[in-house]
Design a protein that fits this description.
The protein has a single domain, classed as Alpha-Beta Complex (Sufe protein. Chain: A), CATH 3.90.1010.10. Helices cover 44% and strands 20% of the residues. It has a three-stranded antiparallel beta sheet. It is globular. It binds zinc ion. Zinc ion binds next to helix 3.
Length: 160
């Protein structure tokens, strides 16, 4: 089975192409506790993220529902889909930690095995580092996540 050098499957790998072709969690939520949209005017990519929180579990509510809608290149679509898949069941703090880990991965920081196992299939996006202009595309849904979390924490200050 030969693949041409310019075949995107060969460039990006199975996990990315699978999420690009069948993106998960694209349906908008009727009600959301966290919402944010990010736009990259340079390539026209757009990411819209919604989270709905469930009842508190061990003091912190966990993410019960996720909608991640991305428009643009294959990388932003795959990244948004993988993000949505990986946020289910996490607390907001765990979501923020995952976002930081993902940034570290995309910035090429050396990560210990425990961090890599935390990232799971998100590690597939590391290949994007070979195409630096695409790193922004991979990060855009995560920027939306971080912005959404910031807005939520402004709305409900800790200890209040
Ligand atoms: Zn893009």
């Amino acid at each position: 089975m030969a693949s041409l050098p310019d075949n995107p499957d060969a460039l990006y790998g199975d996990v990315i192409m699978d999420h690009y072709r069948s993106p998960r969690h694209r349906a908008p939520l009727r009600s959301a506790d966290v919402e944010a949209e990010e736009f990259n005017p340079f390539c026209g990519d757009r990411a819209t993220l919604q989270l709905r929180l469930g009842r508190p579990r061990h003091d912190a509510p966990a993410i019960e529902d996720v909608s991640a809608l991305a428009e643009g290149c294959s990388i932003i679509q795959a990244s948004a889909s993988l993000l949505a898949d990986n946020l289910h069941g996490r607390t907001l703090e765990q979501a923020a930690d995952l976002s930081q880990l993902f940034r570290d991965l995309m910035q090429g920081k050396p990560l210990p095995p425990v961090a890599l196992s935390e990232l799971g299939d998100l590690e597939a996006l590391e290949v994007v580092r070979q195409y630096p202009v695409r790193i922004k595309c991979a990060l855009l849904p995560w920027v939306a996540l971080e912005e959404g979390l910031r807005r939520l924490s402004r709305r409900s200050p800790a200890g209040g």
